[in-house]
Amino acid sequence: MEIDGGGDRISGERPIIMVTNDDGIDAPGLRSLVRVLVSTNLYDVRVCAPDSEKSAVSHSIIWSRPLTAKRVEIDGATAYAVDGTPADCTGLGLSEALFPSRPDLVLSGINVGSNCGYHIVYSGTVAGAREAFLYDVPSASISYDFDWKRGEMNANDFVLSAQACLPIINGILSAIKNKTHPMQCFLNIDLPTDIANHKGYKLTRQGKSMGKMGWRQVEEKAQGPKMLSTMTMDTESGVVSSDNDTSARSKEDSRLFKREVRGSFNEEGTDSHYLKEGFITVTPLGALSQTDVDCQNYYKEWLPKITNQSCSSSSL
């Protein structure tokens, strides 16, 4: 079997899938995805994921120090836990410094919580796939729309989510083999809460939906709720806080604030809308932050006008 993975060729071997995420290497979503991939016996599975939760870190990377990669035992896979961000993990996994070759496909997830609309900007899960896209390796981010109000996670939901992604994964690998896979985008896949009774697969576009966040001053630090890469949270469990803040704080010159959800916006006809309708949404994404035509046209007239006025004023 010959696979074109953005310039690499692998002949006579199973295609290589590398898995990363932002919930950490021990998260149930990643473990379920790897278990399902391994159980097919169709892929060579690698894992390069953060050693702890890195939700909502977006596409940040670490420059200030070397990264540690520690071997972790996951049945059927070659796995490393890295003290970096999702983008760091993908970059290291692609570099051939950690693994002997590049993967044919990178999967980031399965995230606990959906990643639609503007929430994609914050998502470490999406960034894990985007980093592969930037290096011309086919990729997809995968998120499960977990409902925090119903209580504890059901591991079987992640297994069902992983199984539901297999047709898409196999389709991507087939397109890579046939050299028809488009390299101008990567995929963002969101799975509905009731995954066992999903309504099918829906090609969608990224919308502008997001949860509106506010800030409120609080008196004392408390254990924070679970923050997802979607910037949604378990609002019943307390104050959002960071355990990484070890700086000295005096009561005289410091104030403590917490995030809180103050509403949400859901745009019809887009990824979040169809996800809430019960579909598995498949959304092609790119990495360019392009604005719409109206803004381009406005500034096309605006920029020469204000710069010519400036030149005229300076000549007086």
From TrEMBL:
<dbReference type="InterPro" id="IPR002828">
    <property type="entry name" value="SurE-like_Pase/nucleotidase"/>
</dbReference>
<feature type="region of interest" description="Disordered">
    <location>
        <begin position="235"/>
        <end position="255"/>
    </location>
</feature>
<dbReference type="Pfam" id="PF01975">
    <property type="entry name" value="SurE"/>
</dbReference>
<feature type="compositionally biased region" description="Polar residues">
    <location>
        <begin position="235"/>
        <end position="245"/>
    </location>
</feature>
<dbReference type="GO" id="GO:0008252">
    <property type="term" value="F:nucleotidase activity"/>
</dbReference>
<feature type="domain" description="Survival protein SurE-like phosphatase/nucleotidase">
    <location>
        <begin position="17"/>
        <end position="210"/>
    </location>
</feature>
<dbReference type="InterPro" id="IPR030048">
    <property type="entry name" value="SurE"/>
</dbReference>
<dbReference type="GO" id="GO:0005829">
    <property type="term" value="C:cytosol"/>
</dbReference>
<protein>
    <submittedName>
        <fullName>Survival protein SurE-like phosphatase/nucleotidase</fullName>
    </submittedName>
</protein>
<feature type="compositionally biased region" description="Basic and acidic residues">
    <location>
        <begin position="246"/>
        <end position="255"/>
    </location>
</feature>
